[in-house]
Write a structure and sequence with these properties.
The chain is mainly beta and 206 residues long. Helices cover 6% and strands 52% of the residues. It has helices spanning 23-26, 90-97, and strands at residues 4-6, 19-21, 30-34, 40-47, 51-57, 60-66, 75-81, 85-86, 109-121, 124-133, 136-151, 157-168, 187-201. The protein has an eight-stranded antiparallel β-barrel. A two-stranded antiparallel sheet has the order 1-2. Strand 6 and strand 7 (75-81) form a beta hairpin.
């Protein structure tokens, strides 16, 4: 279900495709809170040049304003608690939290604030914003797919998105590495960020 659909009965446009708002998604317009119990913020890194290591941040909070009539007016804010990192290995988690990498004692949070939202195609959207890690702020674009909307058994109106982005960790000052005897390095510079988001519509303000 796309935010906009092609109006097949409209006269040909001289400047571009004529789009009409999908009423079902226009009705979803509103403010949402990201549900941490049903949302996953993860990452994938290449280890020793041969395999992928996956991890996630278990504690996070965020808000979403969805404008179903005009996606460009949508925006999102996300805060991640660095100490909640989980890769399935306590030793590895401890190293990632140390000053070699994320330095959780000095920089306990990672944040993302959107600056622009655009529809790429159908249910595909592109969210551009600023990602801050260790007090370094750099632009990031996340490709997201709208996965649907539903009312859960408790009466919560939910929307879902999933997507990913790739970063070079060195751009945020995360440069620690070790050289392998066989060539290459222990940890890839390229990191894939993954997002599986469920957000609950907030009650209208009285």
């Amino acid at each position: 279900m796309a935010l906009f659909t092609r109006n097949r009965n409209a006269a040909p446009a001289t400047t571009g495709t004529v789009l009409e708002t999908d009423p079902a998604l226009a009705a979803l317009t509103g403010d949402y809170a990201i549900d941490p119990a049903h949302t996953s913020i993860g990452f994938v890194a290449r280890h020793a040049m041969v395999t992928n290591v996956r991890g996630s941040f278990l504690e996070h909070e965020g808000t979403l304003h969805l404008d179903g009539s005009a996606p460009a007016r949508s925006h999102v804010a996300l805060d991640v608690k660095i100490a909640s990192i989980d890769t399935g290995s306590k030793d590895r988690d401890g190293h990632l939290l140390s000053a070699d990498f994320l330095d959780v004692e000095e920089f306990p949070r990672m944040t993302f604030r959107s600056t622009a939202v655009e529809q790429a195609d159908g249910d595909e959207y592109r969210v551009t914003g600023e990602l801050t890690i260790k007090d370094v702020t750099r632009p990031l674009t996340i490709d997201l797919t709208f996965t649907g909307a539903a009312t859960d058994p408790f009466g919560n109106e939910r929307v879902g998105f999933e997507g990913s982005a790739q970063i070079l960790r060195s751009d945020w000052g995360l440069t620690w590495n070790a050289t392998l005897e066989t060539g290459g390095v222990l940890v890839s510079d390229k990191i894939k960020l993954t997002f599986d988001i469920s957000a609950i519509k907030s009650a209208p303000q009285a």
